[in-house]
Amino acid sequence: SQKIEQNSEALNIQEGKTATLTCNYTNYSPAYLQWYRQDPGRGPVFLLLIRENEKEKRKERLKVTFDTTLKQSLFHITASQPADSATYLCALDASSGGYNKLIFGAGTRLAVHP
Amino acid sequence: ETGVTQSPTHLIKTRGQQVTLRCSSQSGHNTVSWYQQALGQGPQFIFQYYREEENGRGNFPPRFSGLQFPNYSSELNVNALELDDSALYLCASSSTGTFTFGSGTRLTVV
In chain B, what residues touch A7 (CB-CB under 8 Å)? Predict the structure, then answer.
């Protein structure tokens, strides 16, 4: 069955450093992959989408890479700030039969300390 | 443009009862999906509605059902509630493959 794994442990980093979050998947070949941010008690907020034919995507301080051979995506936040503290979810496209569906990982909690 | 709004924000129900959750989709989005998120887990796909019809379903029993209305708003109904149904229920609207999520309804079944 399809499986998505994200770092289960919380990631603690110092303000100003680069945070790197990992998303690994098995038994699947998604057409695209998305990253979302989720704050406690809130719904996920879309950050970035990267397609299978793209190696890297950037948006301001965010960078995503997608390696379809390794079946892995890396999510980087450069010059991290305490406001970046949240849970980050990786989601794979599992669209089928004319409908759009995402399969989510369990998320990685990031804590940025001043 | 308005985002996705869900109601109520919190709800407590007794095992065996029925519940209806509501969602207003983002302006211009004609597709609505519902997800269930248990504590510490990622959201799990329940089903999707397009043009008032269910066009995709995840691994959830028939007691989970839904509706979509002509204005693209949607309802999620759960019958015969079980303790394991306690979760955050998220509605997401989409039009081009990216999803806008609401803040969810926190359902507690006691």
Answer: none
User: How many Cβ atoms from other residues are within 10 Å of residue A57's Cβ?
Assistant: 16
DSSP string of chain B, one letter each residue: ----EEE-SEEEE-TT--EEEEEEPPTT--EEEEEEE-TTS--EEEEEEETTEEEEE-S--TTEEEEE-TTS-EEEEE-S--GGG-EEEEEEEESSS-EEE---EEEEE-
| B80 strand-pairing partners | none
pLDDT (mean) for A63-80: 96
What's the pLDDT band for A9 if we cut at 50, 70, 90? confident
Which pLDDT score, from 0 to 100, does residue B2 have? 65
**Poorest-confidence range of B4-13, B18-27, B90-99?**
B90-99
Task: Using CB atoms, pick whichever of B35, B100, B104 lies closest to residue A46.
Answer: B100
